[in-house]
Amino acid sequence: MGYEVGQAEKLLSTVSTESVDLIYADPPYNTGRDFFHFDDRFTSVEDYRDKLMLPVLRQCHRVLKPTGSIVIHVEPRISHHIRFMLDDTFGPNKFVNEVAWVSGGNHHSTKQMQRNHDTLLIYKKNTQFFYEPEYLPYRQEDIDRAKICSVSISLRSSSSPILENPGSFH
Fold this sequence. Notes:
This protein is α+β, with helices and mostly antiparallel strands. It has one domain (about 5-135): Rossmann fold. It is about 25% helix and about 25% strand. It has four helices and eight strands; from the N terminus they run αβββαβαββαββ. It has helices spanning about 5-10, 45-65, 75-90, 140-145, and strands at about 20-25, 35, 40, 65-75, 95-100, 115-125, 150-155, 165. The strands form three sheets. Strands 1-4-6-5 form a four-stranded mixed β-sheet. A hairpin with a 4-residue loop joins strand 2 (about 35) and strand 3.
């Protein structure tokens, strides 16, 4: 049996409450397009929100452990709607981060500015969520090659220049 858009809520309903550490979701983006493997057209943003996303997000919240996190992978055109849904479901103070993931996108159009990133929205179920940072120090050769611009910004009257010290590149 293949996956169908809308199955996630049903599948999540079979998962035990507070049993999942991490959820990664890549839901339909509501692009208005009919793809080969699924139809990504909804009658409205409200239909997308109420009939697909909110029921799924509520189930995600239910199955996450108290220390759990959720990562939602969306495109910029829908990310603000998803962020409001996540705020409603998890609470605005449970927002962890938004990551712009450079995906390549389609930048071959000469008629419009193209997107070249997707958005990852990360929320935690409560304040005691699990996080283990991965950190590698910068390599000296990368530091030496970096172009650094130092800018000081002032919010004075409109007659004053905004950039007081444009800095320098090196």
